[in-house]
């Protein structure tokens, strides 16, 4: 085991781009979305209580709901065993997906490769 697995200190293990993966669920455990966070996004989330991510396409911080109003209020934030992934438990103020759906995971991949809408 390494110190990250047993320490009481939060010490994220960022990838080469300075990011960690953030998995977002609601309090019932439903998967809402997956995004990425850098140190600045983590700090902004901790300071504001609202989920803030790093947008790889826009190359800037992105507070979920900044334009739609569908913010994600963070209830709890956890880190995995080797501190390279985060789990945000949130209270959403609306749909989590930019398509207007509750979750970004609204399609199932069938064995033949077809997509089935499940929401």
What characteristic shape results from the CA principal axes? globular
Number of domains: 1
Order of helices and strands: HEEHEEEEEE
CATH class term: Alpha Beta
Overall helicity: 10-25%
For the record, the CATH architecture stands as Roll
Mean pLDDT: 95
Number of helices: 2
Any chance you could write out the topology, listing elements then pairs?
Elements (H helix, E strand, L loop, with lengths): L2 H4 L13 E7 L4 E7 L1 H10 L3 E4 L4 E4 L8 E8 L5 E8 L14 E3 L5 E3 L2
Parallel strand pairs: 1-6
Antiparallel strand pairs: 1-2, 3-4, 5-6, 7-8
Brief summary of the model shown:
The chain has helices at residues 3-6, 39-48; strands at 20-26, 31-37, 52-55, 60-63, 72-79, 85-92, 107-109, 115-117. It is mainly β and 119 residues long. A four-stranded mixed β-sheet has the order 2-1-6-5.
Structure description:
It is built from two helices and eight strands; from the N terminus they run αββαββββββ. The protein is mainly β and 119 residues long. It has one domain (3-7, 19-117): Phosphoribosyl-AMP cyclohydrolase (Ubiquitin-like (UB roll)). The strands form three sheets. The chain has a four-stranded mixed beta sheet with strand order 2-1-6-5. The chain has a two-stranded antiparallel ribbon with strand order 3-4. Strand 3 (52-55) and strand 4 (60-63) form a beta hairpin. The longest helix has 10 residues, at 39-48. 19% of the residues are buried.
Summary tags:
37% strand, four-stranded mixed β-sheet, 119 residues, 2 helices, Ubiquitin-like (UB roll), two-stranded antiparallel ribbon, mainly beta, 8 strands
């Amino acid at each position: 085991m390494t110190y990250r697995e047993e320490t009481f200190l939060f010490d994220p293990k960022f990838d080469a781009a300075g990011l960690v993966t953030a998995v977002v669920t609601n309090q019932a455990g439903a998967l809402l979305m997956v995004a990425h966070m850098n140190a600045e996004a983590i700090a902004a989330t901790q300071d504001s209580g609202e989920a803030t991510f790093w947008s790889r396409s826009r190359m800037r911080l992105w507070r979920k709901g900044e334009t739609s109003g569908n913010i994600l209020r963070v209830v709890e934030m956890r880190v995995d065993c080797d501190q390279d992934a985060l789990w945000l438990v949130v209270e959403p103020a609306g749909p989590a997906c930019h398509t207007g759906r509750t979750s970004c995971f609204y399609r199932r991949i069938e064995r033949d490769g077809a997509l089935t809408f499940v929401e």
